[in-house]
Design goal:
This protein has about 325 residues and is mostly beta strands. The protein has a single domain, classed as Hypothetical protein, similar to alpha- acetolactate decarboxylase, domain 2 (60s Ribosomal Protein L30, Chain: A, 2-Layer Sandwich), CATH 3.30.1330.80. The chain has five helices and 20 strands. This is Ester hydrolase C11orf54. It is found in: Nucleus. GO terms for molecular function: hydrolase activity, acting on ester bonds; zinc ion binding.
């Protein structure tokens, strides 16, 4: 049964997740990926230093009381936007993983539209030190101008916000063991995240397992979207949603952060959500690679101990949850 409490005006609900050993997860993920990629290597080992510029995160590891967090959801965006749904991510993260110690929060959501004066994607990479100071390595990606170019911009340390919907992996950012994945040359139809998630779902069935972390598309390109500014007409279907979204073929290197779950756990959870940033002007919501023969992935994932659900929409739907 979910524990719940009201903090301010937001309802927080919490449930434990099933936590298999990393070695067991390694075997399941390897089996799933082998069905979808020609070259696969999965092992359990110490996480590399994720502050290395190649990865670009603000803490070195993914360890320390890992939690999955979901705030809001697509029903606050569709069919029409609820502009009041702007959240202080720093405050929510601190409540989701209380106590002393540093915090790392990475994942996918809608960016703070008041900052950009337009709707935007949020690629979140936040560190909070023991004194409660926020270091923001997050980005927004927006559709800009008549030519609808993708523009990637850093979010300043002074802005702790997101809007509408958010999926984060939260931990102390500590070193420690993770599931380390390398795979290349996609031979199947599933995207990288879907392959991992469905492999876990097939094995664990009704048990809810959640993971989060980072993957890097090192070679090739990916089909990714960036939300245009808020639609003035209601969006009632996946077709209408996809006509509103702006899709791009984005070249590697793309660094994607996010979460995945095997089921909704009675909390109306989004099952997978990864957004990417890059050292060029590309960023957005990952769908799949577009170059199966060239595609090469490197990933570091950890298993979460519990899930925290904040401000769950009272009226829900399944549109926009790929």
């Amino acid at each position: 049964m979910a524990e719940s409490l009201v903090t301010g005006e937001l309802l927080y609900e919490e449930k434990p997740l099933y936590v298999p050993p990393l070695q067991e997860l390694k075997e399941i993920i390897q089996s799933a990926l082998t069905k979808n990629f020609e070259n696969v290597s999965v092992e359990v080992g110490d996480c590399p230093d994720l502050t290395d510029p190649f990865y670009g995160l603000l803490s070195s590891g993914l360890g320390g009381s890992p939690v999955l967090l979901e705030v809001g959801g697509p029903p606050f965006l569709l069919p029409l936007v609820q502009r009041s749904k702007v959240y202080n991510v720093k405050e929510i993260v601190q409540k989701a993983l209380p106590g002393k110690g540093k915090l790392l929060a990475i994942g996918a959501g809608a960016g703070p539209f008041p900052l950009r004066n337009t709707n935007c994607e949020g690629i979140f990479n936040m560190a909070i030190d023991e004194q409660g100071n926020l270091k923001n390595g997050s980005y927004t990606a927006k559709v800009h101008g008549a030519e609808e170019v993708c523009v990637l911009e850093r979010i300043p340390d002074s802005d702790p916000r997101c809007a509408l919907l958010l999926n984060l992996y939260i931990s102390r950012g500590a070193p420690g063991p993770v599931v380390k994945v390398k795979c290349s040359k996609r031979t199947g139809e599933q995207n990288f995240v879907e392959c991992v998630r469905k492999g876990l779902e097939s094995h664990y069935k009704d048990k809810c397992v959640g993971m989060g972390g980072i993957f890097v598309l090192k070679k090739g390109a990916a089909h990714q979207h960036v939300m245009r500014d808020f639609s003035k007409t209601p969006l009632h279907s996946e077709e209408e949603l996809n006509n509103w979204l702006k899709f791009y073929n984005m070249p590697a290197q793309l660094n994607a952060v996010g979460t995945l779950l095997t089921n909704e756990h009675g909390l109306d959870l989004r099952l997978q959500h990864f957004h990417s940033f890059s050292k060029s002007n590309w960023g957005g919501h990952y769908h799949h690679d577009t170059t199966p023969d060239e595609a090469e992935y490197e990933a570091y994932l950890n298993v979460a101990e519990r899930v925290v659900r904040v401000d769950r929409p009272l009226e829900s739907h399944k549109i926009g949850r790929d």
